[in-house]
């Protein structure tokens, strides 16, 4: 018989020097296969959890990078707005100077 077996012996009748033994054999091959499958699936689950944790860490790192880039873009936008306002002020100033100069003398 191949497979995995669980054996139980019971002594029901006891005589002088003669023993009669009844035994029961229970085939646990299927149970053993299911346990092995369960172990394999559990290992796969643990591997998936580790992959998920690694992916989550990468996402968190990417989120931090995106937040830092967003802050830098906002700072750059503020600098551009300030530069545009200064340029507009300078343009008005120079237009005022040119308009107040009058006609050139030849």
Summed up, what is this model?
69% of the residues lie in helices and 18% in strands. It contains one helix and two strands.
Structural write-up:
The model has no long low-confidence stretch (mean pLDDT 83). A two-stranded antiparallel sheet has the order 1-2. The radius of gyration is 44 Å and the shape is rod-shaped. Helices cover 69% and strands 18% of the residues. A hairpin with a 4-residue loop joins strand 1 and strand 2. The chain has one domain. It has 106 residues and is α+β, with helices and mostly antiparallel strands.
Question: What's the SSE blueprint?
Answer:
Elements: E1 5-14, E2 19-27, H1 29-101
Antiparallel strand pairs: 1-2
Class of secondary structure makeup:
alpha+beta
Q: Topology as H/E string?
A: EEH
Uncertain stretches of 5 or more adjacent residues = none
Question: Helix proportion of residues, in percent?
Answer: 55-70%
Shape call: rod-shaped
Distance between the termini: 124 Å
Strand order of the largest sheet: 1-2
Name its key features:
106 residues, alpha+beta, two-stranded antiparallel ribbon, 1 helix, rod-shaped
């Amino acid at each position: 018989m191949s497979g995995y077996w669980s054996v139980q012996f019971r002594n029901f009748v006891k005589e002088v020097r003669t023993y009669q033994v009844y035994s029961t054999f229970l085939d646990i091959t299927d149970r053993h296969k299911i346990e092995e499958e369960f172990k394999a699936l559990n290992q796969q689950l643990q591997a998936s959890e580790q992959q998920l944790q690694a992916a989550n860490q990468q996402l968190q790192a990417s989120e931090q990078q995106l937040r830092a880039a967003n802050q830098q873009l906002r700072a750059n936008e503020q600098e551009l707005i300030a530069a545009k306002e200064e340029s507009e002020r300078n343009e008005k100033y120079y237009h005022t100077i040119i308009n107040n100069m009058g006609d050139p003398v030849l």
